[in-house]
Amino acid sequence: MRCWGNAMRLDARTVLRFVLMFIPLFIGCLLLYTQVMKVYHPAALNVANAIMEHLDPPTRMQMNDWGGWRALVIEGGYPVKFTDWLKWQRHLHFLSLALVPALILATPAPWPTRFRLLAIAIPVLFIVHSLTIVGIVRTQYCTMMDPFNFGCRWLRRVVNTSGQLFGAGLWAVLTWRYWVGKKREPKSKASA
């Protein structure tokens, strides 16, 4: 019996090969992450701020020189801060920018397929990261206005844990067929 398409059956050798490829790829992606964030982070922040300007009340996320975040609400045309500087939160949410490429590039698929999947994953991550910033600001504002609102508190927890979970989920959705292949019967000479 053959595997369907380029799919493989899950076996110990495939998993070991994946792990041995993933580790150096992840280290390399982490090194690139620090440089890419200099452009990626402000771009995602700008998209999020463009969305939040149209919400009621208008809000925005401000970034300082060291990459810290501070949420602001626009009252009477002036920004008023409602959070202190959040130094490490961006890495909690954006680290999937290093994780997902390493996972995809280590996946047991042909190299052109890996690059195609990566070309799909990066824009999806960018959209999710921009929406995550919106979610952070809006849930911060909501819990500031009503600290006991269950919906706001629950959504805030979801937003704060979604970074790596979404990255792993995106990788699983994009690459599942390369891990678990469908078996099919070989074509008989009569049907060929």
Care to describe what's here?
It is a single chain. The chain is mostly helical and 192 residues long. The protein has a domain at 28-51 and 88-176. 64% of the residues lie in helices and 10% in strands. It contains five helices and five strands. It has a three-stranded antiparallel beta sheet. Helix 3 runs antiparallel to helix 4, helix 3 (96-106) runs parallel beside helix 5 and helix 4 (111-145) runs antiparallel to helix 5. The radius of gyration is 21 Å and the shape is elongated. Residues 1-8 have low confidence and may be disordered.
Order of helices and strands: EHEEEHHHHE
Count of helical regions: 5
> Which class best fits the helix and strand makeup?
mainly alpha
Rg for CA atoms: 21 Å
Q: Record the strand order, biggest sheet.
A: 2-3-4
Q: How far apart are the first and last residues' alpha carbons, in Å?
A: 17 Å
Contiguous low-pLDDT stretches (5 residues minimum) are 1-8
* Percent of residues in β-strands: 5-15%
> If you average the pLDDT, what whole number results?
83
Helix coverage percent: 55-70%
Total number of strands: 5
Q: Biggest sheet, in brief?
A: 3 strands, antiparallel
Question: Looking at the structure, what is the overall shape?
Answer: elongated
Provide a brief overview of the structure.
The protein is mainly alpha-helical. The chain is 64% helix and 10% strand. The protein contains five helices and five strands, in the order βαβββααααβ.
